[in-house]
Amino acid sequence: DTVLAADAASRLADFARAPASGNHVRRDQHHLALCMLGYWNATRNDLDAARSASERVAADLAREDNGFAKRNGTACLAMLSATIAATTGDRDAKRSVAALDSILLSARTPPHVILEAATIVAGRLHAALGDTARALVAARRREYLTGDPLFLATLLGDEARYARAMGDSAGAARALAQLAILRERRP
Fold first, then answer.
1. Residue 187's pLDDT is what?
2. How much is the average pLDDT of 146-151?
3. What sign for the dihedral angle of Cα 172, 178, 183, 184?
4. In the structure, what pLDDT confidence band is assigned to residue 68 with cuts at 50, 70 and 90?
5. Does residue 85 surpass a pLDDT of 70?
6. CA atoms of 124 and 131, how far apart (whole Å)
7. Does the pLDDT at position 51 exceed 70?
8. Over the range 62-81, which residues count as b (16 or more CB within 10 Å of their CB) and which as e?
9. CA-to-CA distance for 81 and 51, rounded, in angstroms?
10. Beta carbons of 182 and 153 less than 8 angstroms apart
11. How far is C-alpha 144 from the geometric centre of its chain's CA atoms?
12. Are 119 and 156 in contact (CB under 8 A)?
């Protein structure tokens, strides 16, 4: 829903533009806000704003002393870099998305919003770059050991779409069946 997304981006803007400060949790939230706002801007073809967000995260990470916030910020930075590369048609876009995948595979636990959001983005970028097989692999990547996966409905919808595109009708049907069960449980 682009109207809801625009409203969320608008609400994040002031926080994201403020200096990162406070404890590592607050700084991590700031990096996440910058990342989501940068991604939103990239999807709207406002690449200057996306690059600005990326530069801010990189500058903050150079001073970050907490491993958790640094890991999440690094995933954020890789997601923004890959998105900008794919959006601009950079010849190294596939390499940037592969680098994002590598970061996501090495930093699965503990789960975090940026890791799951970046997994969705990685799949979509693979698909946009014509690699539906890798998109499907990304969409099937889940962290189950720490509770219900974040953004599961989105991952299942993407999985069904990529599986169908790959000719895996059984895989697409399984993903859609899981999605139906998930929707039935919703209050």
1. 64
2. 76
3. positive
4. confident
5. yes
6. 10
7. yes
8. eebeeeebbbbbbbbbbbbb
9. 8
10. yes
11. 18
12. no
pLDDT band at 178 (very low <50, low <70, confident <90, very high): very high
Three-class DSSP labels, 118-169: HHHHHHHHHHHCCCHHHHHHHHCCCCCCCCCCCCHHHHHHHHHHHHHHCCCH
Structure tokens that stand for 125 in this block = 């970028």
The encoded tokens of residue 15 equal 């926080």
What's the distance, CA 41 to chain centroid? Answer: 14
Question: Cβ–Cβ contacts within 10 Å for residue 165, how many?
Answer: 14
**Burial code of 93-122, b = ≥16 C-beta within 10 A, e = fewer?**
bbebbebbbebbeebbeebbebbbbbbbbb
Q: Is 1 helix (H, G, I), strand (E, B) or coil?
A: coil
Question: pTM for the whole thing?
Answer: 0.90
Shortest CA distance to 20 belongs to which of 59, 67, 54?
Answer: 59
Query: Average pLDDT in the 15-19 region?
Result: 84
In the block, residue with structure tokens 């990342």 = 35
Q: Which residue has the tokens 């700031």?
A: 30
